[in-house]
Design goal:
single chain; 427 residues; mainly alpha; Proton glutamate symport protein; 21 helices; globular
Length: 427
């Protein structure tokens, strides 16, 4: 009976019940969508304050701002290398497996209006200057109210730097920010107990809305995407983790509760605060966690990158469009840019795909209609891969910076209980 008190067991039960309701009573499943949406909104309510307090306090406690700048550069360098590997893997698997071959779809028969709304959203991020200006919040409280993570990050870094220049007063402000961080982590601890209900509603809606028939129809694409993502986690991230001194399998086991929350809600943000807590408890510095995790949610979307190149090749193959080696390289280069361009936009996976295809004229944008029905089934895998990728990135960058507590890391990987640090209380 005690096993049912464990959160990840409760979430598993919620997912299973959601699957059953969606299959047996699809109309009821569709109506349960507010349960999943409500849970995600409750989590998002506290994300911006958690990010702000954690990052601002972390920067305020740093004595060497040059070290913080070096941390930022190394973080972005790591993101670019690993993201490019994800894009290349999606391209290589798509060309090898060719999941779209045999569909023989006439591009003229496709409805171009399906992709129109996604293209419109993508255009908002095509201008680099406008995008960079968009990182600056209009007002301090506006960034927190709108929940734009990069804007919150910018504001937090500025506040943290200001604290380092204000002497004793800055120290008091840093202490206040640390207390605020503990408060909002406590809020997350309360809200996350509703995760089984949220997972139940979200899964019931997904199955009830789209049904198992959609899975069968485009099963080759879905199976290829899931297998490619698993290959990326085990081989690419596994190699990176091994070089940093830990096992990817044990690390995944360490964050299994958070992964189930992500799976149930189809949103990697739903478990972001708990991930930050666990990474700090694991031995990563607060300043590193505070910078790498929120930045990674915009610049290190490994699952989304795999999806983009794989889905683009699927559409090309399904519409009998042959892509030369040069065109595939163009697709890769465009995807490298567009994957950053729509960062922070809701539905970024489909939006960045639309932006990529609009610049690569060989592949019809209207072909997105072919995968729209099953995109929801692939969003869970995108979210899980993105989540694991950012978690691994935080540990690796911490080790790179020499700020990783190896003793705590070893204890966590061995499954031993961890004494909680003062700034990482896991509810």
């Amino acid at each position: 009976m005690r096993h049912f008190r464990v959160l990840y067991v409760q979430v598993l039960i919620g997912i299973a019940l959601g699957l059953a309701v969606g299959l047996l009573w699809p109309d009821v499943g569709v109506k349960l969508k507010p349960l999943g949406d409500g849970f995600v909104k409750l989590i998002k309510m506290a994300i911006a304050p958690v990010i702000f307090c954690t990052v601002a306090a972390g920067v305020a406690r740093m004595n060497d701002l040059k070290a913080f700048g070096r941390l930022g550069v190394r973080t972005l360098l790591y993101f670019e290398i690993v993201s490019t590997l994800a894009l290349l893997l999606g391209l290589a698997v798509g060309e090898t497996v060719r999941p779209g071959t045999g569909f023989n779809v006439d591009p003229a028969s496709l409805d171009p209006s399906v992709a129109a709304s996604y293209l419109e959203k993508a255009r908002h991020s095509e201008n680099l200057v406008d995008y960079l200006l968009g990182l600056i919040p209009d007002t301090f409280f506006g960034a927190l109210a709108q929940g734009q993570l990069l804007q919150v990050l910018v504001a937090a870094v500025i506040i943290g730097i200001a604290c380092t220049r204000l002497g004793e007063f800055g120290e008091r402000v840093a202490g206040f920010l640390e207390d605020g961080s503990r408060l909002f982590f406590g809020v997350i601890g309360v809200v996350v107990r509703l995760a089984p209900i949220g997972a139940f509603g979200a899964m019931a809606f997904t199955i009830g809305k789209f049904g198992p028939s959609a899975l069968v129809k485009l099963g080759a694409l879905i199976a290829t995407f899931y297998a490619t993502s698993l290959l990326f986690v085990v081989v690419v991230l596994g190699t990176v983790a091994a070089l940093a001194g830990f096992s990817i399998f044990r690390f995944v086991a360490y964050i299994r509760e958070e992964l189930l929350i992500v799976l149930g809600s189809s949103s990697s943000e739903s478990a972001l605060p708990r991930l930050m807590q666990k990474l700090q408890a694991l031995g990563a510095r607060r300043s590193t966690v505070g910078l790498v995790v929120p930045t990674g949610y915009s610049f290190n979307l490994d699952g989304t990158n795999i999806y983009m190149t794989l889905a683009a090749l699927f559409i090309a193959q399904a519409t009998n469009v042959h892509l030369s080696f040069e065109q595939q390289i163009l697709l890769l280069l465009v995807a490298m840019l567009s994957s950053k361009g729509a960062a922070g936009v809701t539905g970024s996976g489909f939006i960045t795909l639309a932006a990529t295809l609009s610049i690569v004229p060989s592949v019809p944008v209207a072909g997105m209609a072919l995968i729209l029905g099953v995109d929801r089934f692939m969003s869970e895998c995108r979210s899980l891969t993105n989540f694991i990728g950012n978690a691994v990135a935080t540990i690796v960058v911490s080790a790179w910076e020499g700020g990783l507590d190896r003793t705590r890391l070893a204890a966590a990987m061995a499954g031993e209980p961890l004494p909680l640090s003062a700034d990482a209380v896991i509810a």
